[in-house]
Amino acid sequence: MTKAVVVGSGPNGLAAALTLAAEDVDVEVLEAAPTVGGGTRTSELTIPGLLHDECSGFHPLAVDTPFSRRFDLSRHGLRWRWPEVQYTHPLDGGRGAAAWRSIDVTATDLGVDGRAWQQVFGWLATRFDAITEDFLRPMLHVPAHPVKLARFGALSLLPASTLARRWSTPEGQALFAGVAAHALRPFGSPMSSAIGLALGTAAHSYGWPVAEGGSAAISRALVGLLEEHGGRVRTGATVTSLDELGSPDVVMLDVAPAAAARIVGDRMPPRVSRALTRYRHGPGVFKVEFAVQEGVPWQHEESRRAGTVHVGGSLDEIATAESEIHRGRMPERPFLLVGQQYVADSSRTAGDTVPVYAYAHVPGGWAGDATPVIEQQIERFAPGFRDRILARHVRSALRLEEHNPNYVGGDVVTGANDALQLVFRPRLALDPYHLGVPGTYLCSAGTPPGAGAHGMCGYNAARSALRELRGRSAGHS
Q1: What's this model's pTM, rounded to 2 decimal places?
Q2: CB neighbours of residue 173 within 10 Å
Q3: Which of 259, 263, 332, 397 has an alpha carbon 20 to 30 Å from 406's alpha carbon atom?
Q4: 69-120 pLDDT tens trace
Q5: Domains of the chain listed by start with CATH number
């Protein structure tokens, strides 16, 4: 029987394992940590009964993909829950803007900027299924929908600072700036609009859902379905070399690109090894989990009902902060992403105390303490917030890497989203998953289509491996 070993049990490693196991491959997953999940772990980090997502909390690109259509995770307990408001952006004085699932409601709320929002996101939202069919794959392929992909690509090429000027009000500009900041790129750089366009469109097409009971429910469902297909998971198993794995037919590495080069070692062709070791990581994040009594008292009313709140002030303020972290300097007012998953999923709360996470964008590998500036930024838009904090759990950029080695320097998106790497990660190749060694593949978020608990990196890598296996079989017949 064909055997495979998957190193790493993040959502991509588990997706790769499940895709192989469903094709009658004997699969074992090896995880160094004591628990599975990678970026989809959920824990009681502050007070008993309060469920905190340790990394990924919102999953706009996970609900309708080739992987999610192939495997019904709901049979193993995965339930998606949506907030009333997908994301918001508060401004000073109680002002702000909100992105609703309905693009018409969003446009109406934006007033004079509503038409421009419709022009950018309306066309994309009605065609997003076709667009994602192409951009959830490696870039070097024949597009299934070339015209739609070209229009999305033309907007994506723009710097975020340029596209944001399509809106004339501080509210409209800030609403786009907040979602564009997910790219962790300077707003003046080419293609810094791409992530914001994708996530903004997804908010209207799919929403920004959370997993009921925490993101660990995704891992549990993946493991449950994997075991149903005969796969196994072993935790506490660190792998440093291919020599430790015996002679499986397939090896899948759900690790950072440079770590893959170390594990494969001299077996890897020098050109591939050079590309992986030169792979660039981006800025880090500094994350604080809060136990907050009665929630965050946002002055902007819609922010109290939003799953995600982007905190950073105006377009210019966010652009300045993002530029600073890329220069290796910690800004006085960093951009924050505040997660309020409990507004969609009340099972995470304990009485009137709710879990809130906040992370600040910081320079890669930054060793300082951002807790005071994070609280100051939230307090700016939610006076009285500090008085409601009952407990905190803090992870610096360096501690995030210790917790999950794929997050090099606290880089939770597993790679800098500069123009070249955004399109051709981890290297320029027809099959970016294959590591130049027969049967050996990279399946982490360092491969297309990149970060997110959508499992598509693992699914794509496993399909590549299955093609190789079929080719071997045909060659032997």
Answers
A1: 0.95
A2: 23
A3: 332
A4: 999 999 999 999 999 999 999 999 999 999 999 999 999 999 999 999 999 9
A5: 3-43+60-79+211-279+405-476 (3.50.50.60)
